[in-house]
Amino acid sequence: MSLTEIPRLSLGLFPTPIHRLDNISCELGIDLWIKRDDLTGLGLGGNKVRKLEFLLAEAKAQGAEIVFTTGGAQSNHAMLTAAAANRLGMTPVLILKKRGVTACKGNQLLEKLLGAEVIFLDTDDYAEIYAEMDRIGAERGRPYYKIPCGGSNALGSLGYVACAREIAQQGMHFDHIVCAEGSGGTMAGMALGAKLYLPGTKVHGMMVDTDPFDEITPRLMREAADLLGEKVNITTDDYALRDQCGPGYAIPSADGNAAVRLMAEKEGIFLDPVYTGKAFAGLIAMAREGAFREEEKVLFLHTGGAGGLFAISEED
Predict the structure, then answer these.
(1) Last residue of one domain, picked from the residues 151, 182, 213
(2) Confidence (pTM)
(3) Number of separate domains in the chain
């Protein structure tokens, strides 16, 4: 089945723009561009909109009335799922790990404005959270649909296969694409999409969590390829991974915060301290290590996350 044949809703404003970061290009001595997936149009924008177009199309087809998802307390994905579910007339229920900033600020404030039901569980085990979804769903007696953390399954990953095709259709070649990897779906989709639509492009995943992405990334790539009926040989030559977790998931890092400030001061663009700030810090480090040649074009995928910026304290 081709990408255009898989059911997909229209939730975002696409294509998102690509433009050059002139000031930071000069500072780093590279040809640096940015793909503005922080401008996808739903909520405060972000990468999850592309995934939700596929996932919620399946939910609608199955007749779901309740949409469950999960993540940390400041999950951008959870907030955007609530916004999308509301728009589609479904009821969002967010069962979140009691980790990170749980106060009514950042994405928690946005979820309150959306009227979403938020339940915190004091656990690090997603199996417990998915079991709670089933318990609540059965208790309420309405058809429901479960979206995994980050929307990162094979179907959700197709959102970034589509993004890679979109980049190809925008008519530019990039030697490198750099993106955050927090649950795996965006990176896997982009890496598979590059293999299908962007020959000669290497995708770099900046790992902001401690999950085994060396296993998760190729597995999601293979599963997404299977959905498309594509027979591709996935190898580690197709992508690269770099550890940018720092002191821990959802804990700001010094180099990540410096990257957030650099992007704001030089380009007037806001990153976040959990995902894009750490990912851009990885790109900066690679540039300073000489990983990019002068003649190569580098694209940074801005996956959004602005809501989380307003959850950190000044001392962070």
Answers:
(1) 151
(2) 0.97
(3) 2
